[in-house]
Amino acid sequence: MTLQGSLEKEQVAAIQHLVASSVPGMKIANVSVIDDKGHLLARGGSEGELTTASADEMRRSLELR
Protein backbone atom coordinates (compact mmCIF):
# COMPACT_ATOMS: atom_id res chain seq x y z
CA MET A 1 0.00 0.00 0.00
CA THR A 2 1.25 3.50 -0.78
CA LEU A 3 0.66 6.82 0.82
CA GLN A 4 -1.80 9.08 -0.93
CA GLY A 5 -0.06 10.60 -3.91
CA SER A 6 2.92 8.21 -3.99
CA LEU A 7 3.60 5.50 -6.54
CA GLU A 8 4.55 1.90 -5.96
CA LYS A 9 7.79 0.50 -7.40
CA GLU A 10 5.87 -1.42 -10.08
CA GLN A 11 4.02 1.74 -11.17
CA VAL A 12 7.27 3.66 -11.56
CA ALA A 13 8.74 0.78 -13.60
CA ALA A 14 5.63 0.81 -15.80
CA ILE A 15 6.12 4.53 -16.48
CA GLN A 16 9.75 3.90 -17.49
CA HIS A 17 8.65 1.15 -19.85
CA LEU A 18 5.83 3.24 -21.34
CA VAL A 19 8.13 6.17 -22.07
CA ALA A 20 10.88 3.99 -23.54
CA SER A 21 8.47 2.06 -25.76
CA SER A 22 6.83 5.25 -27.08
CA VAL A 23 10.11 6.73 -28.39
CA PRO A 24 11.69 4.82 -31.29
CA GLY A 25 15.10 3.44 -30.32
CA MET A 26 14.93 4.53 -26.69
CA LYS A 27 15.96 2.01 -24.06
CA ILE A 28 14.55 1.75 -20.55
CA ALA A 29 18.10 2.31 -19.28
CA ASN A 30 17.85 5.88 -20.60
CA VAL A 31 14.64 6.80 -18.74
CA SER A 32 14.64 8.40 -15.31
CA VAL A 33 11.40 9.30 -13.53
CA ILE A 34 10.88 12.28 -11.25
CA ASP A 35 7.77 13.48 -9.46
CA ASP A 36 6.12 16.89 -9.75
CA LYS A 37 8.42 18.29 -7.05
CA GLY A 38 11.62 17.11 -8.74
CA HIS A 39 12.23 14.10 -6.51
CA LEU A 40 13.97 11.23 -8.27
CA LEU A 41 11.70 8.16 -8.27
CA ALA A 42 13.77 5.97 -10.60
CA ARG A 43 16.97 6.35 -12.52
CA GLY A 44 17.86 4.64 -15.74
CA GLY A 45 19.95 1.54 -15.20
CA SER A 46 21.32 -1.31 -17.23
CA GLU A 47 18.89 -2.94 -19.63
CA GLY A 48 16.52 -5.24 -17.79
CA GLU A 49 17.32 -3.64 -14.45
CA LEU A 50 14.90 -0.96 -13.38
CA THR A 51 16.32 0.90 -10.43
CA THR A 52 14.00 2.86 -8.20
CA ALA A 53 15.53 5.64 -6.19
CA SER A 54 16.35 5.00 -2.58
CA ALA A 55 15.27 7.35 0.17
CA ASP A 56 18.86 8.64 0.35
CA GLU A 57 18.91 9.40 -3.37
CA MET A 58 15.61 11.25 -3.12
CA ARG A 59 16.92 13.25 -0.15
CA ARG A 60 20.14 14.15 -2.01
CA SER A 61 18.12 15.20 -5.06
CA LEU A 62 16.01 17.49 -2.92
CA GLU A 63 19.06 18.93 -1.16
CA LEU A 64 20.77 19.65 -4.49
CA ARG A 65 17.71 21.55 -5.70
Verbal overview:
By secondary structure, the chain is of the alpha+beta class. Helices cover 37% and strands 12% of the residues. It has two helices and three strands. It has helices spanning 9-22, 55-64; strands spanning 33-34, 40-43, 51-52. The protein has a three-stranded antiparallel beta sheet with strand order 1-2-3. The protein is globular and about 35 Å long.
Estimate the strand proportion. 5-15%
User: Radius of gyration in whole Å, from Cα?
Assistant: 12 Å
Number of strands: 3
> Helix- and strand-based class?
alpha+beta
Mean pLDDT: 77
Net shape: globular
Low-confidence stretches: none
User: Biggest sheet, open or closed, and with what strands and sense?
Assistant: 3 strands, antiparallel
Strand neighbour order, sheet with most strands: 1-2-3
The total of helices stands at 2
Instruction: Classify the helix fraction into a percent range.
Output: 25-40%
Order of helices and strands: HEEEH
Question: Cα distance, first to last residue?
Answer: 28 Å
